[in-house]
Amino acid sequence: MINKIVQSVAEAMAGICDGSVVLIGGFGSIGQPNALIEGLIEQGAKDLTVVANNSGVGHVGLAALLETGRVRKIVCSYPRTVDPVVFEELYRSGRIELEVVPQGTMAERMRAAGAGIPAFFTATAVGTRLAAGKEQREFGGRQYLLEEALAGDVALVEAWEADRWGNLTYRSSARNFNPVMAMAAKLTVAQAQHIVDLGALDPEKIVTPGIYVDRVLHMPYGEPTVT
Amino acid sequence: MNVLEICKPRTRKEMAARVARDIPEGWYVNLGIGIPVLIADYIPEDREAIIHSENGILGMGPAPEEDKIDRWLINASKLYVTLRTGGSYMHHADSFALIRGGHLDLCVLGAFQVAENGDLANWATSENDTTPAVGGAMDLAAGARRLWVLMEHVTKSGDSRLVRRCSYPLTALGAVTRVYTNLAVLDVTREGFAVREMVPGLTLDALQKVTDAPLRMV
């Protein structure tokens, strides 16, 4: 019997190595798997590369992870929030490397990784400083940049409902990067507000089929706050 | 002559309302963070223009009443919003596929500078910006069928934002098709900026005096 549901945060984080590329879901704090991020802090893996849309707010969640000094590099589209104190300090003092990636290119690079596509061409960022060092080609009279797939060793995602096969649903705008990251990592760990019996999820409503998910942690924390 | 002596510039709300007038029923529209998100408030409810938010919402509605907030539903500016009847959710790769794939009729973005050839600079103000943050601006500028910019005509220090060539880092090349400012509405044409409309009292001469790029009437 397949059962991907784990009983503790420690079990959810088992085996995550130093030097891992960690994909972390969420758009701001919505859909961000805070319990798993705290678990990763507790677990202690270091020299990490984190891929996330933002760079953390205040001193919680992603910001708390950065604050441990165990993140070598962050790949994100918008390292600016209402209160990016931790990131700003690390970045100004040269203690974290930043790769800024246009948001859609970041999403597609992970989708490509999950879909077995090593690289793709996009018109996004042509003629800008983010095009530096990238191969450029013309198709149908328009210029495009070659962007490479972005795979993770680990993805930490937040779901609304999950079953023991790892099938996931999401809650409105908390879906964001989570399904894309779930498909792009070797080890995908999901925290879910609700665990339901196998068969209880309407197959038409499952967004992430369990094939992409390795571990599920039940984390009924209630409602998020926008930060 | 100071333009303020001969006309009353539009307020931010009036600027947003002015853009809203030009968005017809049936268009799919993305509104950037800053002044552009205000446009949604001025599209009448019975005119079905569908608003897209980059974080995976198609058919976004206005801000909810205080007691009806859904804490899972935010827009690109990370503000609480609602979903219109008929709206849908999608993940980030699909959200940007519809942007990159040319399915949006229109995107309206804020900007630091727009050049007379349609170049857009709206994400960083210098080459060594301390924390460069691009978000979805480059994807939207490259992907939407039409790109309009909504911005103040001049900076706080009085420098023109409509320029011959952008001095700030570019977001996209030749992408902007129209600019709405607090003083005028201008098309970007092969021959540069063409003024479609000015606020009452303003003259082309007076507008030119606060604009770096050469202007002509449509």
Q: Short description, anyone?
A:
The complex is a heterodimer of chains A (227) and B (218). Chain A is an alpha/beta fold and 227 residues long.
- Portion of residues in beta strands of chain B equals 25-35%
Structural class of chain B: alpha/beta
Largest sheet of chain B: 10 strands, mixed
Order the strands across the largest sheet of chain B as they lie in space: 4-3-2-1-5-8-10-11-12-13
CATH architecture of chain B: 3-Layer(aba) Sandwich
Our count of helices of chain B gives: 4
CATH architecture descriptor of chain A: 3-Layer(aba) Sandwich
Low-confidence stretches of chain A: none
| Low-confidence sequence ranges of chain B | none
Helix fraction bin of chain B: 10-25%
How many helices of chain A in DSSP terms? Answer: 6
Biggest interchain interface, per-side counts: A-B, 52 and 43 residues
What series of H and E elements makes up the topology of chain A? EHEHEHEHEHEEEEEHEE
State the name of the first-level CATH class of chain A.
Alpha Beta
If you average the pLDDT of chain A, what whole number results? Answer: 96
CATH superfamily grouping of chain A: Glutaconate Coenzyme A-transferase
Computed CA radius of gyration of chain B, to the nearest angstrom: 17 Å
